[in-house]
Design a protein that fits this description.
343 residues, alpha/beta, Rossmann fold, 8 strands, 34% helix, disordered N terminus
């Protein structure tokens, strides 16, 4: 594949559509997949949402569970498309990419709702459970609530774990929700078994340590809110995310063990049922989202799915050489183009 030209799509039926999107040309100083993953997180971006109106809203997804959304409505919200944004593992609605996409989408005339997953963004008190990769019903519930308020043309947009959740919700819905206009996801972990295996490799120790440290801190916060519910004995001795999930995430979510959780929570099981325009954007050099997961019939042979897979990009990085008036965040710009119908 030649850089500077549009990257190949797996779904040849949609090649003509995909050709409208500018190719990703990596910023050469950080072309390495680890640098591409880490640098964008720390690149100074300023107050992206300054001056953009915001409304905090609670969505009740189960009788004892609420998730928080920060809504940026256009003056006439019912005439605009709406983008529901969902973050990845141990992120929140204030992750830099959530602000970046929200600012660009709002300025392009879209409504935007930045969602927190359960317990994220300081919302541990709003749910008795932890969050996990299988809770797609939460986002179907949010979609249904907004659709009941006559919000039409709603797009689901998610990163990493959030991408898996929204693909899973999209497949589960099929054609049953007319308000769902489409889905766009970035580096989704559609097969958690493979992704955790990669994450636990020695080469990925930095990411693994980051996620595990934060997950341990989260369960400690949950334990302080619900004395007696969480057994923290031995928590410090846990050295692998798979151990943490086996002891905490899986039983909390109703799974037999970590292996059962990873298998059942992957969107890979329902990709064949996706029936709305869906774009999956992933990098072939993502350090812990194996590209091979997307070279399957459920992705390649579903005419509703388009796969964009640049050679470089790292995990959700896609930090580009400066192009015209665009900033460095290539994938954020492409998401807005896709939702606006330009890609």
């Amino acid at each position: 594949m030649t850089e500077g030209k549009c990257q190949r799509t797996v779904n040849h039926a949609r090649d003509a559509e995909a050709m409208e999107l500018p190719a990703f040309v990596p910023a050469r100083p950080i072309r390495n997949h680890h640098l591409m993953t880490v640098v964008p997180r720390y690149w100074s971006r300023g107050p992206l949402l300054a001056g953009i109106p915001v409304e905090r809203r609670l969505f009740r997804t189960e009788p004892d569970t609420q998730i928080v959304g920060f809504c940026h409505w256009q003056d006439n919200r019912w005439s605009a498309q709406t983008m529901l944004l969902l973050h990845g593992l141990e992120g929140c609605c204030d992750s830099h990419y959530m602000h970046g996409i929200a600012a660009k989408a709002y300025k392009a005339g879209l409504n935007v709702v930045r969602l927190n997953q359960r317990t994220c963004g300081g919302t541990e008190h709003l749910s008795p459970t932890l969050y996990n990769s299988g809770l797609s019903a939460d986002y179907r519930s949010v979609l249904q609530e907004l659709a009941a308020e006559q919000m039409h043309r709603i797009w689901l947009v998610g990163y990493s774990m959030g991408g898996n959740l929204l693909l899973k919700a999209t497949g589960e819905l099929g054609r049953s929700q007319p308000a769902l206009a489409g889905t766009v996801v970035v580096c989704p972990n559609i097969d958690p078994t493979l992704c955790v295996r990669e994450l636990e490799r020695p080469a990925n120790w930095l990411y693994h340590r980051h996620f595990l440290t934060r997950l341990k801190a989260r369960v400690q916060r949950k334990a302080s809110l619900s004395p007696g519910r969480w057994d923290l004995k031995g928590l410090r001795a846990i050295t692998r995310i798979s151990e943490f999930d086996d002891r905490y995430t899986a039983p909390d979510g109703g799974y037999r063990d970590a292996a059962d959780y990873y298998d059942r929570s992957g969107a890979r099981h329902v990709l064949h049922s996706i029936a709305v325009p869906t774009t999956i954007i992933t990098a072939q050099d993502d350090p812990f989202i194996p590209y091979s997961m997307f070279l399957t019939p459920s992705v390649q042979q579903n005419p509703s799915i388009r796969l964009l897979a640049p050679t470089h990009g790292g995990h959700c990085g896609f930090f580009q050489t400066r192009r015209n008036e665009e900033d460095r965040y290539w994938v954020e710009n492409r998401i807005v183009e896709i939702v606006r119908g330009r890609g």
